Amino acid sequence: MRFARFAAVTFMLLLGAGCSELKDPASPQPTLVPAIKSVEAADTDWTLVTTKTVTPDTTTQVTGSRYTLTFEPLSILESLSVTIRERNASIVDVEFGPDGSQFNKPVLLEISYRGTAFDAAAPNFNGRSPRLFWWNPDTGNWEIVPGTDNPKDCVYTVSLRHFSRYAMGDGTSGWEDADRNKDSIK
Prior knowledge:
By secondary structure, the chain is mainly β. The protein has helices spanning 2-17, 33-40; strands at residues 47-54, 60-64, 67-71, 80-86, 93-97, 102-112, 131-136, 141-145, 147-150, 155-162, 165-169.
């Protein structure tokens, strides 16, 4: 079912893409479909970073790799087994689960982007400010997640209302993988 949906979206995007240029280069575009393929068709490309049970009555942090999720009391109404999976440890491309989980109160997400193309001290620094996007399977688009950037500490902070797949880019040419020069988008 997921593969069929992916194939249909890919076909529609290829038909619509043609030779035209992006009309809104500042917003994420689903034109880099191969990145989505890695989620839809090859779940084995993802690495489980951590799993932790969160309860509704306490403040709990779930930490793994570049990511720290902070749940305040009553963010959730019943215990939840939270997972963090990443596609590649050297970039920001992560799935928080269970996918689709929604929260009573926002869950704070802190992402360290140290060493990525958004880190001014990194040799592959692209000179741009990071932005976080989430993949909306209903619309087939990457959507911006407003957040706060702390370039001194290379930490991007957002409040999440739900779990999904999130990726960091700069929004200038659609969804951009910080590791795009290493052909990590397959």
